[in-house]
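Supplementary notes for students who missed Thursday's class. We covered one full example, reproduced here. Read the sequence, then the structure, then the short commentary at the end.
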Amino acid sequence: AELAWFLGPAAARHLHAISRNHDPRPVRSDRRRGSFGSQSALGSSPKSGADLDARLVALVDRLTRRMRSSGRAGRTVTLRLRFGDFSRATRSRTLPHVTDGTGAILAAARNLLGAAAPMIEHRGITLIGVAVTNLAGRGYGAQLELPLDRPLDAALDAAIDEVRDRFGPDSIRRGA
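Structure (token representation):
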């Protein structure tokens, strides 16, 4: 009765049923994830641009490897920042085509980080994260671009993935 007074009768019935483990909603096991992301806490000490870039390279590398192993690609790259005063900011950029390539996603993330550099210098940074959304299957909706050459980035990503599959995830790292 008290829940109905605060929330209304429908919401009260729903919350009461869920609290007693009665949930009529069907379980959906066919849903695929809507995003891939990776983030890293940086601590409170000041970070140089090179330190941030190295951390960004590691995050994007880990993220795109997971995307490739899942057979997914995305278009929207989001940079997540937490500053020294615990405020947060996100910046995003939508790419012209879906990709799981480390180079394309890293370039977009670096552009976003460069645009946020004045805020970082002024407020300090304690966390950096990267996410890719607007997902589709690899190659889905791919628009052919000129020149029609195969991008070298895909070959590099495939070679790095093979080395990690054979020798472990820490066997090779991208340079910053």
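Commentary. The chain has a mean pLDDT of 86. The two ends are 60 Å apart (CA to CA). If anything here is unclear, bring it to office hours.
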